[in-house]
Amino acid sequence: MAIEVRIPTILRTYTDGQKAVEGDGGTLAELIEDLETRHSGIRERLVEGGELRRFVNVYLNDEDVRFLDGISTKLSDGDNVTILPAVAGGMR
């Protein structure tokens, strides 16, 4: 099963600068484990305590997985997963 994962700039140090990588898995959790086998350290940036980190947004085919089944969201061959760090802050 091939799933395209789009990687934000801040995490590209784990993917040797690649903007997108392929992964496998029947769920988002399995996909993250698969990515970890090829891109060591990326899981720690995405997952904490078995759930997605609070400031990491993940989209499955442009839908926020938090409104689906979170880290248990089911994936299919050909899906696109986009990882985006949350952006906050600024000045008044």
TrEMBL record:
<dbReference type="InterPro" id="IPR010038">
    <property type="entry name" value="MoaD_arc-typ"/>
</dbReference>
<dbReference type="InterPro" id="IPR003749">
    <property type="entry name" value="ThiS/MoaD-like"/>
</dbReference>
<dbReference type="InterPro" id="IPR016155">
    <property type="entry name" value="Mopterin_synth/thiamin_S_b"/>
</dbReference>
<dbReference type="Pfam" id="PF02597">
    <property type="entry name" value="ThiS"/>
</dbReference>
<dbReference type="InterPro" id="IPR012675">
    <property type="entry name" value="Beta-grasp_dom_sf"/>
</dbReference>
<protein>
    <submittedName>
        <fullName>MoaD/ThiS family protein</fullName>
    </submittedName>
</protein>
<dbReference type="InterPro" id="IPR052045">
    <property type="entry name" value="Sulfur_Carrier/Prot_Modifier"/>
</dbReference>
